[in-house]
Amino acid sequence: MAKYIKLWLIAALVLSAAVYSYASGPAESGSVTLSGLFPDRALRREVAKSLGRRQANLTGEALLNSLASIQGSRLNRWEAFLASFDGHMRREGSMFIELREGQPVFNVSGKGIRNAGGIEYLTGVTQLMIHDNQLTALDVSQNTALTHLYTGGNLLTSLNVSGAAALEYIQVVDSSLTTLDVSNNRVLTWLSLYNTGRTAYNSQITSLDISHNTALTHLWLQNNLLTGLDVSNNTALTWLRVDNNRLISLNVSNNTRLQSLDVTGNRLTALNVSNNGALGRLLAGDNQLTTLNVQNNTALAILHVDGNRLTNLILNTGSNNRLVNLRVEDNQLTSLDIRHTRLQNLNVSGNSNLTTIYIRGSTLRPAAITNRPVGLVIER
Length: 380
Fold this sequence. Notes:
17% of the residues lie in helices and 17% in strands. The protein has seven helices and 21 strands. The strands form five sheets. A twelve-stranded mixed sheet has the order 1-2-3-5-7-8-9-10-11-12-14-16, with no helix packed on it. The longest helix is centred in the N-terminal third of the chain and has 22 residues, at 2-23. It starts with a helix and ends with a strand.
């Protein structure tokens, strides 16, 4: 009888040890393997390449230490330039990616990755390019060294960046996100969260809290469903794109450093840019504006206000005028003063009430004014 009891106790101890080993998780056991940490074969393959054959076969604490040392490949200036056009970005023809020359980049873009599990063990990665995959969720909250994140062209419905406090640059293009919490990303300078309209999946952001992101200089939120946006705390902003949303108002009075503002395709009835003296580019077409005053915007070179209800457009007509590109089609203007501008051509179609245009001191020739209403008078 004692023999059976002894055997039973031994079996119980073995079973308990097995259960403990399972419950303790891979990071606490000696059986940690690459396949156990990275369930996705495509991502695991790329990690193995970075480790090399010898380190990829390590287990336990040795493997975890090796994973933490992965940073990626260092880019020279030309490589950084080419990477800026890689995959999704190449198709967009954009150069807004801000890869740091000489800094390592862990680039796993376009590899067919479906599951980013295990990415949390790559704690040494500072720049992560994981765009053009098939991810629905991405959690980089434990990647505390991460400064740059590129996730465009995925199927993301969830993105967790809460613990990645060092992030300076987040780019999420063509996702399926409905919300994003960046309240803990206090050093963030560039946030791109928009849709190109070229894919079947589009983010549907209706609101975004950026009140804590006072370092932001670039904010691109075009083609979402925003009904409001508070940028009053974001005084460092130089570029703001909120075109093709559902905004009914936007206050940029505190954003005195703005150089480019795009509010095209919203529902704005008024826009005050009197405090934005550095503004060189203002795109405000396809809204419901009835008047716009840009007298204080002496740096303005490009102004698009086509497709509004403008009856009054007040331009800076001083001798230092820099305006070279003006669109006013499809409004309700009765007169237009463009003296001292540097315009080369002007299309006034859709302004049937327009009676007078003042062009004295301008580079614009009368012959370059097209689609004139009958009876239009050009004052030189």
